Amino acid sequence: MNVPENLKYTKDHEWLRLEGDEAYIGITDYAQGELGDVVFVEIETESEVLDKEEVFGTIEAVKTVSDLMIPVSGEVLEVNPLLEDTPEIINKDPYGEGWLIKIKVQDSSEIDTLLDHSQYQKMIEA
Fold this sequence. Notes:
The chain is an alpha+beta fold. The protein has one domain: CATH 2.40.50.100. It is built from 4 helices and 9 strands; from the N terminus they run E-E-E-H-E-E-E-E-E-H-H-E-H. A 6-stranded antiparallel sheet has the order 1-2-3-9-8-5. The chain has a 3-stranded antiparallel sheet with strand order 4-6-7.
């Protein structure tokens, strides 16, 4: 199971990579493995400001549809354009080309409430 050290994680299996006051958000390798083959991603919150843990979209796999929750408060700046035609990129590269949204972080102190890689690793192994 791939759990990069440079990311923050949620108990809902999303990751966050901070770049200045912006952040990329996606689902973890563990999450994509549990979901199975991703067939569709719906994110209609671009340019909206969302509160921490608010739903920003849904991800559909062959067997299920799951809500996507924003790990920290922020404005959705961009939705990954690759997801429209190739949602399966999430299965192939969840931490790279398979990112979901880019946000402008509203409250950077919320990032401190997220899990680091070792905390997340322990959670998924429990």
